[in-house]
Structure formats: structure tokens, C-alpha cells
Write a structure and sequence with these properties.
Length: 124
């Protein structure tokens, strides 16, 4: 099983796609059966990538306090705190994220993600 740096690199690809407004790169990180659970409701892979139709959703971000929980062969949960700034905003926001990554046909893909918004944040 790969370690924490491997899964942080995978998760960073998703955040980089959000920062670049690159729906194709975002979609490539997610399983066809991806399920997102967010304060706004449930989302599939097309919903997640579709949020980039108008451009980037993140200007800057950092990942803190990452933890890895192996879930068995070819499965792992990455949990962390994300601090980020949205384009055109000066204030930062934070949330706790849990992402499950699974190995499918030799590729690691995100199959599940849940965000829990934090109400008190520090600057990016």
C-alpha cells in the first residue's frame, strides 16, 4: 500500500484542477461512480467537474494535518484540513475533507469525498 505522500499527491491533483479551472483534469481523478457529499448535497463525477464550467473555484489552497487510513487491499481514506481562498475573495475558508481512493485497473481514482465546512479560519 502506498503511503501518505502518494495519496497527498493524488489529492493535490484534484485541488490543482480546481485552481486551474481544468474540468478534464478533475474528471480524470474521479471514478465513474464517484460520490461527493457536500454541504450543498450529493454530487457525481460530472457534477464535480461541472463546477469548473465558469473557471477556477479555488485561487489558493493548502492541505494541513493529513492522515491516512488504509481500508484494505487497493483502498485508502485520506483525511485532512484544507484552507483555501476562492477567486475574487480575500478571506480564506477551511474545511475538513475525507477522500477515499481506490485502485481500479491499475489506476488510483477518487471514489468518495466528503467536506465538512469549518466556521473559523486562518489566512492562507
Amino acid at each position: 500500500m502506498p503511503g501518505l505522500p502518494f495519496f497527498l499527491a493524488l489529492e493535490t491533483r484534484v485541488w490543482d484542477a480546481l485552481a486551474a479551472g481544468d474540468a478534464r483534469a478533475d474528471r480524470a481523478c474521479l471514478s465513474a461512480g464517484f460520490l461527493g457529499v457536500y454541504p450543498t448535497g450529493f454530487a457525481g463525477r460530472d457534477d464535480h467537474a461541472g463546477q469548473l464550467a465558469d473557471g477556477p473555484t479555488v485561487a489558493r489552497y493548502r492541505i494541513e494535518d493529513a492522515r491516512l487510513l488504509p481500508l484494505g487491499a487497493g483502498r485508502a481514506l485520506l483525511a485532512y484540513r484544507a484552507v483555501y481562498t476562492r477567486p475574487g475573495h480575500s478571506g480564506s475558508e477551511a474545511m475538513y475533507v475525507s477522500s477515499i481512493w481506490a485502485e481500479e485497473d491499475g489506476r488510483w481514482l477518487n471514489i468518495f469525498s466528503q467536506d465538512s465546512v469549518e466556521t473559523d479560519t486562518a489566512p492562507v
